C-alpha cells in the first residue's frame, strides 16, 4: 500500500508523505513549514496550536527528499515551503461573509460556523489516492503521522517524552497509545518504515524485498 501510494505520488506529494512519516507532520504543519526549520541533522519548529516545542532528528530519507524538492523548487529560507497555485498557504481559514453564513459556501451548506477552511493537503491527497487506484481507501493524510509515531515508538530509547515532542502534544494520553505492543503484521510494516527513514537513497522504497 505504501509503495503503491509513493509510486503514484509527484515529487512534492512524496515529500509530504515522508515529512508525515518521519517528522510527524500533519496538514497544518505542512501549511506553515519553511526551509529554515530544517538542517541535515535536525528540525526545529513550534506547533502554533499548542505552543509546545517541536524538534527532533532529521532522518536521511526525509532530508534527501527535501533537498531533491528544493533543487527544483528553490525558495527563500524564511518563505513557506509549500503554497497553492494561487499563492495561498496549503491550509487557510477565513471569516465567512454574511451571504455565506446565510446561504452556505461553494462546498458547504449554510451553518452557524463563522469561518470557512480550505485544506489543499486533503484535496491533493484525495486525488493522489485516486491516481494510485486506492480512491476507496478511507484514510486521510493523517495516516502518515500516525504511522510515523507508531514506527518512532519502536526505536530504542524512545519513551513518552520523546513521543510528545514528535507529535507536538503536551499530554501523555495523546501519545501513550503508540507505546502499546504491536501485532506481527504491524511490526513488519514499522520495521520497513524505519529502514526507509534511515536510508538516504531516494528510491530505497521501490525495493520489493523491503530494502
Order of helices and strands: HHHEEHEHEHHHH
Form type: globular
Largest sheet report: 2 strands, antiparallel
| Lateral arrangement of strands in the main beta sheet | 1-2
What fraction, in percent, of the residue positions are helical?
40-55%
Strand content: 5-15%
The assigned structural class equals mainly alpha
- On the 0 to 100 scale, the average pLDDT is 86
Task: Report the span from N to C terminus.
Answer: 15 Å
Count helical runs: 9
Cα gyration radius (Å): 18 Å
Report on the architecture of this protein:
This protein has a two-stranded antiparallel sheet. Strands 3-4 form a two-stranded antiparallel ribbon. It contains nine helices and four strands. It has 211 residues and is mostly helical. The model has no long low-confidence stretch (mean pLDDT 86).
Element layout with pairings:
Blueprint: H1 2-8, H2 11-23, H3 27-32, E1 42-46, E2 53-57, H4 60-72, E3 91-95, H5 98-103, E4 115-119, H6 120-131, H7 142-153, H8 160-167, H9 184-197
Helix pairs in contact: 2-4, 2-7, 7-8, 7-9
How would you summarize what this structure contains?
By secondary structure, the protein is mostly helical. The protein has nine helices and four strands, in the order αααββαβαβαααα.
Attribute tags:
about 210 residues; single chain; mainly alpha; two-stranded antiparallel ribbon; about 10% strand; two-stranded antiparallel sheet; globular
